[in-house]
Amino acid sequence: MERHADDGPQRLPALAALRAIARSLSAAWDLDTTLDLIARKTTEVMGVESCTIYLLDTDGATLRLRASTGLSPQALGRATLQVGEGMTGLAVAENRPVFAADAQHDPHFKWLDDTEEMRFRSLLAAPLVLEDRPIGALNVQTVEPRHYTAGEIELLALISDLAAGALAKAQLYDRQRRQLDDLRTLAQVSEAITSPQYLDDILAVVTELAARTVGASACAIYLREMGDDPADSDPPLLAHPPRAELDSTPLDPVLLAEVARGGRPLYVAQLAGSGAALLAVPLSVQERVIGVLACLGPPGHAFSESQEALLTTLANQTALAIENARLVTSAAVVREMHHRIKNNLQTVAMLMQLQLPEADRLETRQVLLTNIHRIRSIAAVHEILSDQGFRLVNVKAVLERIAQTTMTGMARPDQPVRIAVRGDNLQLPSRAATAVAVVVNELIQNSLEHAFVGRAAGRIDIALARTPDALMILVRDDGVGLPDELEHNLGLEIAQALVVEDLQGELQFNRLPGGAEVCIRLPRAAEG
């Protein structure tokens, strides 16, 4: 790869192009719009047939295709490179532009499935860097071989610098927009804080709201545990829910007891040992203290009088909500348990009923194992709900549990198979998450049963990603691949029905050069 002399005559057009891009980016806000704008404007000012943007996943090692003007739209969110892999990955790893007039003959070039980039010959890739930290890569391609000049390389590097700042702004905007949505939700909850709700849900919302309101690093609620002895005037204080305990900086029970006994706020500018600031206010109902709301600030943080007043008001409202919740908790828990258990049993019954026509041909042990894993996949959703205390489920966490339990129960000891889950943390309502869990469980079991016949070992990769208009879950194996005539067994029929009918999505089966891939594509509205 040889560099060319700088093209002085191109300097003014390059500056004009940069100004045009800067003006366009100043009007963009959200991430999807910014990505699309960068790709289109770069294609235009560089005079190329394709501009592609990869962004780093949260693992810091995987570059995921997020926008392109020339590659197949089907590859968005799916195609990935590792840092150092391919010419684009090399540009990120070495923090420098990488280019070739005939890229497909470059030793670093890597062909990605489904991108349809074989028609392009040249490639110039530049890293996207923000404050010495790589966040992705930007590359351009042409159909005809092209020897990129030093001026063109410099222009793309400058565009990359502009793009990195714009993408950082867009990511911040998206985060702030999500935070605003959270605050709106919390505002709605606070308006209904005295209505019957689950106690743990109320307390989890209140601690999150309190932390945001006063700028605390952590908040927890401690409630007095009323025992059987009515004469006990100083019962112990326990964190509710238990996970709300401030583990990183355990609070002195004497300080909490002081607030509960005196019924007055307590402010400690620096706690012994940690240096953290503490603001604790009593939870009072009709001059009766039922607990303490405690907030910690980082060392050097100071809580203001207005924050103390605001926290006291919130604590008083919370105390009323706790009293109301305690009155209805038993009945509400029974109703919710009945509802969830009924739905889960109906799902299990439906799956077993689908097996009835084939009962005479099925092996009893295999049927039992299959249904055990289906039930466990449903249970994984509710374990996450129990841990988080909210109605939305982290699908990635669910699939990690399913992968672990399925490998434990179904993998052959003489045939090691690795299952990896990576990508975005998709959040789905419990019903949709349950359907996704069952579908992925069926696909994993199908791969373990059919993909690695005659193989000594294998690998199953599960990737989750958001695109501008869809949520995608990819289940890919490096096994023997799909047969010429794909026959949908019961498990695949279940997966097809759940994706299409319950989730209003699509299920696609793709043949790969070294294995098979199933793509679950859901509308973005599923996140609601």
Automatic annotation (TrEMBL):
The keyword ATP-binding applies. PROSITE patterns: HIS_KIN. It is an enzyme of class 2 (transferase). Its EC number is 2.7.13.3. Residues 336-526 form the Histidine kinase domain. It catalyses: ATP + protein L-histidine = ADP + protein N-phospho-L-histidine. Pfam families: GAF (PF01590), GAF_2 (PF13185), HATPase_c (PF02518), HisKA_2 (PF07568). GO terms for molecular function: ATP binding; protein histidine kinase activity. It comes from the Bacteria. Keywords: ATP-binding, Kinase, Nucleotide-binding, Phosphoprotein, Transferase. PANTHER family: ETHYLENE RESPONSE SENSOR PROTEIN, TWO-COMPONENT SYSTEM SENSOR PROTEIN. This is histidine kinase. It comes from Candidatus Promineifilum breve. The lineage of its organism: Bacteria, Bacillati, Chloroflexota, Ardenticatenia, Candidatus Promineifilales.
